[in-house]
Amino acid sequence: MSTARSAHAQAILGPDLHALLANTKVLLVGAGGIGCELLKNIVLTGFGEITLLDLDTIDLSNLNRQFLFRRKDVKQSKALVAAQSAAPFNPNIRIKPLHANIKEPQFDVRWFQGFDIVLNALDNLDARRHVNKMCMAAQVPLVESGTAGYLGQVQPLLKDLTECFDCIPKPTPKTFPVCTIRSTPSQPIHCIVWSKTYLMGQLFGEDEDAGSELDEAEKEGENAQEIATLRKEAFAFQAVRRALRSPNSKGSAARMVFHKIFDSDIRNLLVMSDMWRTRTPPTPLDFDAILEGTPVFDHQKETRDTPLNGQNQANPNGQLNGQLPNRTEQPANASLKDQRTLSLKDNLMLFVSSTKRLAARLQSGEETISFDKDDDDTLDFVTAASNLRSTAYGIPCKTRWEVKEMAGNIIPAIATTNAIIAGLIVLQALHLLRKSHNKLRNVHLQYKPSVPLSTVTLSAPNPACGICRDTYTNLLCDTSRTTLNDVVKGILGEDEREVSVYEDKRVLSDPDWDDNNERTLESLNVTRGKFLSIVDEEGEWETISVAISTLPANHPVDGSPLILPDPLPRPPRKAKTSLPPPSTPPRASLKRSAPDDSDIVGVEPNAKRMKADVVASPTKRRRLEEDGLVLLENEKDALDDDVIEID
Ligand SMILES: Nc1ncnc2c1ncn2[C@@H]1O[C@H](COP(=O)(O)OP(=O)(O)OP(=O)(O)O)[C@@H](O)[C@H]1O
Ligand SMILES: [Zn+2]
């Protein structure tokens, strides 16, 4: 339909592509920062049938960059509101909004096959990997994307033609060794992580045995004496937990908490002189002295209420060595409440008031409270507690604003970056739809004003990938009437080779273990939306992944419980790789009598275990580094101060 409204789009795209788009069915997953921009783009470009899916509701903090939302829409479904806002931009297209999680079982492979193309506008690895797998299984082209501050990336993915999202392992999110967090912090982030995970958990979380983390640390070979001290400290938390929950504590609970964590616990740590031989020991804090503005330091030269900015040296008795630091420079915008540098006394007052507010919430029935960057009480508490701890350890303090950013793992979202990436997604989507495969590129938006965009030709699939090298097929069945054997025999047909069968990481059968063969898929918890992997025992043929879907609505009630694919899948021979051959799962552990779900052995299918052995290629590493990202091979790799974690 040619209207004045679409005249420009038609002129740019040409009549053929314009007509093709009018009949294109597209799935857009995510209606956040990238998703809102992208929806506007594909509506104006004229993608005829758009399904827009998002699980979330609109938050006030989304309004600065998600321009399809207004103040009145806060708390409404993102998908619904975005669809309503964008639909009037082009009356020739249709938008179907879905307020749902893309991982729900009704969005199975058959459902994905109903689309010509899928566009991801997601913010987490788990959902991205899920959509990647579904698109590989459904053979539907996918455009993957992401932004982090000024950086962005668009990646077109198509089974057998390009690398898939899982062909290259992603960097592991950074974790810190337990002892750094619990007794020897040296950076503000260590104190922030301590407050938001450990301290909040101990005081306001579930009353659980804190020992398991320490057992682990002990196994990892961390300092045994230190762990014994940390264990004692954990038991002592019981008393303060009770005080926080008792209406009779009359406000004394905050002081009690303070005394325990900033005085007693620190004194206990100081006893371990070995620990402080090569490190600056912490200084216990005195509640009353700080409150009165007269904290007592070693030479008692200064008793001002002054923010400590980390240059302090403490002696082995835990006393600060005389000179107090100068007041930290206030930034120009310091009048903004959150960006003001807090003095030691400010931090103490904030600690007391936020502890009281959180205690009141526990007493009025909230069972547990965990850190949430948008929950003022918890943010105040984490700001104050981490700054007090930093003070004790001679580490620079942070403003409430900085703590929010660091504790919330926030990388500032920039509307312009999202807009550029959303434009690039459409360009790659057009290449995919036109099948101009030689024009496809991975596009990087980078922080280089002279070369803001770089393009990389696509890599071929990784032969050892556990996701896109599988041969996928669909099985329509009634899982309550179909047995494991029906599926395996049905799919293999005449082919009598020896196989093992997995659902995700669970082994369901192998050549020497057939106890589950007569069990129904339902009883094995293999239901709609899941996959059965049929793995060749000799490692000669690629794995067959069977996607489980339901029978069609018009299937006769007394008809066969399953409809096999036609033709049956015939996987290719495995490509030779230079990787070590896959080892078979340990046999002895596979023998089980009538296992139920909990009893089924969790072992990765061969192909998947191979995948775990793949390390990132040098090119990938360089590419990541050019983008300002650091790839962690090992969770314990040390990171520089200025590195922000993303998953
Ligand atoms: N499994 C999922 N199913 C459906 N939608 C998802 C899923 N996971 C994430 N999303 C959606 O993807 C969108 C990602 O958008 P974005 O990165 O802008 O995040 P946001 O939540 O809007 O903003 P912020 O995280 O910065 O507060 C969000 O709207 C989120 O609800
Ligand atoms: Zn892959």
Automatic annotation (TrEMBL):
One of its GO terms (molecular function) is SUMO activating enzyme activity. Residues 329-404 form the Ubiquitin-activating enzyme SCCH domain. Residues 300-335, 555-624 are annotated as: Disordered. Keywords: ATP-binding, Metal-binding, Nucleotide-binding, Ubl conjugation pathway, Zinc. Residues 12-466 form the THIF-type NAD/FAD binding fold domain. Residues 476-548 form the Ubiquitin/SUMO-activating enzyme ubiquitin-like domain. Zn(2+) binds at C164, C167, C465, C468. SUPFAM superfamilies: Activating enzymes of the ubiquitin-like proteins. One of its GO terms (biological process) is protein sumoylation. Transmembrane segments: none annotated. Residues 306-333 have a biased composition (Polar residues). The active site is at C179 (glycyl thioester intermediate). Heterodimer. Belongs to the ubiquitin-activating E1 family. This is Ubiquitin-activating enzyme E1-like. It comes from Marasmius oreades (fairy-ring Marasmius). The lineage of its organism: Eukaryota, Fungi, Dikarya, Basidiomycota, Agaricomycotina.
